[in-house]
Amino acid sequence: MGGDNGISVTVPAAVRFAHRIADVHFLLVGDETKIKKSLNHSKPRDPNQFEIIPCNEVITGEDAVESALRHKKGSTMHVAIKLVSEQKADACISAGNTGALMAISRLILKTLDGIKRPAIASAIPNISGGGTYVLDLGANVDCTPQHLQQFAIMGTALVQAIEEIDNPTLGLLNIGHETHKGNDVVRKTYSLLQESGLNFIGNVEGDDIFKSKCNVVVCDGFVGNVMLKTSEGLAKMISQKLKKRFLHSFFTKLIAFIAKPVLSKFKEEVDNRRYNGAVFLGLKGVVVKSHGSADSLAFKHAIYKAYSAIKFDILNKISVKVGELQSTEVSEQISNNTEHA
Amino acid sequence: MGGDNGISVTVPAAVRFAHRIADVHFLLVGDETKIKKSLNHSKPRDPNQFEIIPCNEVITGEDAVESALRHKKGSTMHVAIKLVSEQKADACISAGNTGALMAISRLILKTLDGIKRPAIASAIPNISGGGTYVLDLGANVDCTPQHLQQFAIMGTALVQAIEEIDNPTLGLLNIGHETHKGNDVVRKTYSLLQESGLNFIGNVEGDDIFKSKCNVVVCDGFVGNVMLKTSEGLAKMISQKLKKRFLHSFFTKLIAFIAKPVLSKFKEEVDNRRYNGAVFLGLKGVVVKSHGSADSLAFKHAIYKAYSAIKFDILNKISVKVGELQSTEVSEQISNNTEHA
User: Fold this and answer.
1) Which residues of B touch A66 (CB under 8 A)?
2) Closest residue by Cα to residue A10 from A54, A48, A42
3) What residues form the membrane-spanning segments (chains A, B) (predicted)?
4) Distance CA A217, CA A173 (A)
5) Which chain B residues touch A228 with a CB distance below 8 Å?
6) Average pLDDT over residues B145-159
7) Among B230, B102, B223, which Cα is nearest to B174's?
8) Can you give the pLDDT at residue A248?
9) ipTM of the complex
10) What does pTM read for this prediction?
11) DSSP for B144-207?
């Protein structure tokens, strides 16, 4: 039901996805009448791939997280995430209120054993035509080096799952490439990542995200959120200015008509719809958040992210890697203590 | 001598500036022979506006800040900043190593009385065709609410000086507009700014910088630096992709030729050269850092920033406002202590 366009986007996206992937089964949580109508309209190939879970309570974008948690316990978000916790669904995908979705996910699903904090990860289009995955994008405003190390593990597993890259490269977002740069948390994280066994390439700067320097970039949620919104704001401003220039007069509109094939190709290339879908990592279940303004093509890509995460068994892979690192830390502590004794 | 192009940019820029502004006098610090040659080539209207201060030791972009401070005490940067501290110059403008320039400025000039930390401020082009001034852009990786409050005062004074806006609006960079958003430092800063007497409009997000929501945006140097470099990286990627599209084939090149008037206007509009010049605020002297890749037009704008700061008597205005706020704080503390007694 969520996002700017609700069912008119989410249902057709699910139908389009099911067209291509036969082994998927959708539980559509929301207003039964509206979903039925949209389903009929979208003409699914196999109607058995869809089941409606009727629910009429909806969390809006304006609802504060606290009140959504307390006063809307029967909301579509609660119901959908409960389906995951009861193993009736493998993943939950929503275009709704990000804060509420994360809070309800944490409440119902809990974090994976050993994971201190869940994080939000998404891909940013880069110059190579691919995407650079960045996390955390806003779930955690204060992070310790240990949190950031866990984000690195989770981000690596995510890229392995979705991009099918064996050993993704990892960068630490900083204000310079040199080892000594940044604040205390970032410097300590640098050391932890060097010892983590991950494919760590060192510090990266804001512009490196677009240069395809590495597959995963780790940062705290404050910095990540500012970075993401800055990128969205700048891209929007540039496209508005370009559009305005071409719509300036009859003459420029004529030029726009002639240049259309080039401009369309350009638009396609900087189109970020195929990167839609921020993955909530570190929970006992897969939750994917679509951009609120997503159309059905973009929402289909968010579904694809959830599907890949499940197929790759991402939760298990994260647990194993976190477990490995923790046992190394514990054994190091024991040996340190023995030395001191 | 600094930046990617050294004297071939800085000297012609100074000559162009002196063409328009009669009451400026330049002390050109660097290689005497080269400067003389460049001066002759640039044909100044009034040669008396220029004086050469011979100096052959140069700090490069590769020099570590520590070694620049210790082993290059006779560098052009040292000499130029000393001219400011000895009141032989009103401002120093450089396109060289940012870290070294800040460190040498702090060492020689010291901070203004009452100012805890100097900050780097620059304008980011926004949708209105103007610029949003953001600070700190990288001088301080860890900030207290008091530091951020002082940045707000200094940024406000800078916009008053350069943009000639009486009462500039001020935003606090955060990850949401709501009062409770962000980390502890940002929330405490929010309260301080509310009581500061500045024209504080509340929290702003990364995309608001481009929406012309306020004149000044305050953040810590880590976040500001990531924001700045992200913007530079994204803008570069988009322009590369647009260029590549138009250079794709003979046909697209033909379209580019036809679309040239529109594309040139667009390029002019997103041209950030007129925003060149990051101002180091909070020091006992005006220091302006030009982008290393600046051409002479861009460098001329950096000179203009220094000129405006001097004309507006920015150092004095910052001192007065900081003094006012401190005396308020002291009197509040006294009245609090009296209440508790």
Assistant:
1) none
2) A42
3) none
4) 6
5) 206
6) 94
7) B223
8) 84
9) 0.87
10) 0.89
11) -HHHHHHHHHHHHHHHHHHT--SS-EEEEE-SSSSTT-S-HHHHHHHHHHHTSSSEEEEEE-GG
How does the average pLDDT of chain A come out, rounded?
A: 90
Give the tens place of pLDDT for each residue, A248-288: 888 888 888 888 888 888 887 777 788 899 999 999 999 99
Determine, yes or no, domain membership for B102: yes
Number of neighbouring beta carbons within 10 Å of residue A64:
14
Q: What is the DSSP string of A243-262?
A: HHHHTSSHHHHHHHHHTHHH
CA separation for the pair A309, A316 (Å, rounded): 10
DSSP classification of residue B112: P
DSSP code string of B51-99: EEEE--B---TTS-HHHHHHH-TTBHHHHHHHHHHTTS-SEEEE-S-HH
Q: How far is CA B166 from the centre of its chain?
A: 20
Distance from CA of A71 to the nearest CA of B (A): 20
CATH number at residue A100: 3.40.718.10
Domain span including residue B64: 7-339
pLDDT of amino acid A175: 93
Other residues' Cβ atoms within 10 Å of the Cβ of residue A8: 16
Q: Rounded to a whole number, what is the distance in Å from the CA of B124 to chain A's nearest CA?
A: 10
Return the bridge partners of A28, or none.
A52
The reply to whether B1 falls in a domain is no
Which phi and psi (to 5°) does residue A212 adopt? 60, 40
B residues 9..28 contacting A (CB < 8 A) = none
Instruction: Compute the count of residue pairs across chains A and B with CB atoms less than 8 Å apart.
Output: 165
A237 touches chain B (CB under 8 A): yes
> For chain A, give me the number of helices (H) and strands (E)?
12, 10
Chain B hits for A223, Cβ within 8 Å: 222-223, 226
B182: number of CA atoms within 13 Å, CB side? 26
| A-proximal residues of B, 141-160, CB under 8 Å | 141-142
Structural domains counted in chain A: 1
pLDDT at A8: 94
Chain A positions in Cβ-Cβ contact with residue B252 (cut-off 8 Å): 261-262
Residue type, B112: L
Q: What is the DSSP string of B14-53?
A: HHHHHHH-TT--EEEEE-HHHHHHHHHHH--S-GGGEEEE
Q: Is residue A1 part of a domain?
A: no
Residue A2 lies in a domain: no
* Tokens (6 digits) for A36: 């039925």
Which helix (H) or strand (E) is B328 found in, with range? helix B314-340
